[in-house]
Design brief:
361 residues, 13 helices, 0% strand, PUP_plant, transmembrane
Length: 361
């Protein structure tokens, strides 16, 4: 009798250990998957943030002039997202009934509204880059971190620290420095008034991009369902669809799509290269947006803003190397201030979020 009871206790103990092992294994697997998807999102964001501005500026440098068309390219590559969505659908875990694969209507409605805002921001960005060098507009768009920080404080209740305040201040200083020295990097054929217009419109685009990032985080946070990568992809598809629709309407009214054949024949690098530039824009920009959405999903909008600032620094260097843009001393100082800003943010974030160590007597 004693042996039977001891055997039963031994069996229960082993069963509990096995369940604990499987639970621990699932947690580790989930953590690895999370970090893996975050890494993939960062890689996509890096490729898109560095390559997108270069391709868009290449379009305007060699005869492209259609701003609605160029802004339409930024989001119209969304059909490529159906490839990973299809793979995720057929490989989904059907043993988890509490986790939905499809996004809720409420979340998709938020995506639609954010998509319209994104479309407005894309048009403003295209307008700005038609007058400004890549290195300049990248520094200006870096100011989205300022707007992201402010909106995170108001909307997400993110606490400001001396380090985040310092980051905001020095990034603003970098943008002001560029505005005061506009004559040194103005492209050939661009007037002083056009440069100023592009300058302020680019800052406005940065403000909208900051709003989009924070509102995306809020939408994810307020969703009445568990947020998964597949739901994040569906959210981004709806953002892209409505941003594309907005730019499509603008392009039709402005008759941008009608003149594509004529513009291709007059493109400085040839008609074939013209269409390759357009297609490349569609793919590369979509990588940027899905990367940004993934970073927000697994971290926060503020971290996504900081990573965007980091990626834009590489975009400026790439513009000097590939497009042979003039990198003035003022741009160097503005870039240094930007690097100082997000370094300050990273250090402050690490210092304020790490757990305090308990000292043993």
């Amino acid at each position: 009798m004693v042996d039977a009871e001891s055997n039963e206790e031994f069996t229960k103990e082993n069963s509990n250990k096995e369940e604990g092992y499987h639970e621990s294994s699932n947690i580790r697997s989930s953590s690895v998957m999370r970090w893996g998807l975050l890494l993939i999102s960062c890689i996509c964001g890096f490729i898109g943030t560095v390559g997108g501005p270069l391709l868009l500026r290449l379009y305007f440098m060699h005869g492209g002039s259609r701003r609605w068309l160029s802004s339409w390219l930024d989001m119209s590559g969304f059909p490529i997202l159906f490839i990973p969505l299809t793979i995720l659908y057929f490989r989904r875990d059907r043993t988890l009934p509490n986790i939905d694969f499809f996004a809720s209507r409420k979340l998709l409605l938020c995506a639609a509204l954010i998509g319209i805002a994104q479309g407005i921001g894309n048009f403003m960005y295209s307008y700005g880059i038609s007058f400004l060098p890549v290195s300049t507009i990248c520094l200006l768009v870096t100011t989205q971190l300022v707007f992201t920080s402010f909106l995170s404080f108001i909307w997400v209740k993110h606490k400001f620290t001396p380090y985040s305040i310092n980051a905001v201040v020095v990034i603003i200083m970098g943008s002001v420095l560029l505005g005061l020295t506009r004559s040194s990097d103005r492209p050939t054929g661009v007037t002083n008034s056009q440069y100023l217009l592009g300058f302020f419109i680019s800052v406005g685009a940065a403000a909208i991009f900051g709003f989009v990032m924070v509102s995306t985080q809020v939408a994810f946070k307020k969703a009445n369902q568990a947020m998964t990568y597949s739901i994040g992809l569906q959210f981004q598809v709806f953002v892209a669809v409505f941003a594309t629709l907005f730019c499509t309407v603008g392009g039709i009214i402005n008759q941008d799509f009608k003149g594509m054949h004529k513009e291709a024949s007059q493109f400085g690098l040839g008609a074939k290269t013209y269409y390759w530039v357009l297609i490349s824009n569609m793919v590369v920009w979509q990588l940027m947006f899905i990367g940004r959405a993934g970073i927000i999903l697994y971290t926060s909008s503020l971290f996504a803003g900081v990573m965007t600032a980091v990626f834009l620094a590489f975009s400026q260097i790439a513009a000097v190397i590939t497009l042979h843009e003039n990198f003035t001393g003022e741009k160097g100082m503005a870039l240094a201030l930007t690097l100082w800003g997000f370094t300050s943010y990273f250090y402050g974030s690490h210092r304020y979020t790490r757990k305090p160590k308990v000292e043993t007597p």
